[in-house]
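Memo to structure team: turn this sequence into structure tokens by end of day. - J.P.
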Amino acid sequence: MFSRFDIVSCAAALTLAGSGWAQMPPGQPATMGGQGGGSVGMPQDPGRDRYSADRDFIRSAAESSATEIHLGKLAQDRASSDAVKQLGKRMVAASAQASEELQKAAAALNIQLPADPPRKAKKAEDKLAKLSGSEFDLAYAKMAADEEKALVRQFEREALSGMLAAVKEFASKNLPAERELEREAEEVAGAKTASSK
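Reply from structure team:
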């Protein structure tokens, strides 16, 4: 038989466990590991859930897309080289399409994306505004290549280890186009670097 102490202890444990599960956010699976998953007895970082990397990816990719659109338009207006103007045009078109898809993913996760270009776009624009001719072309092509290189790495990471199926699918679907833009930007930057010597 169970003693009265055993029954009271068991009731207290069930009450505490029940209050912990009751505090779970809607849509999160109830597990013993705490907020958003984990194993029994394994501590979780209380500030991060299992989808935080997906949210970070969406924000970062949206910021990169906005930067590429902003600077791509600038390149179309100010570049002296047709190759750089075309690169700017391709960056705007590809980033605008990706941005639309990102907006849908962000809305599904209740993430508010800013409407204005990020500060890094304004900073890059200020730097480019001081340049003209072949100096502008070279600086823009290098910025575009660097931005694409970083973006491709983010897409690869999300496509490989994303937790939210829709976000992971977005990254996988758009990764080939991002790789192609990276290749094109590096090609133009390489040609501009070679011609400036």
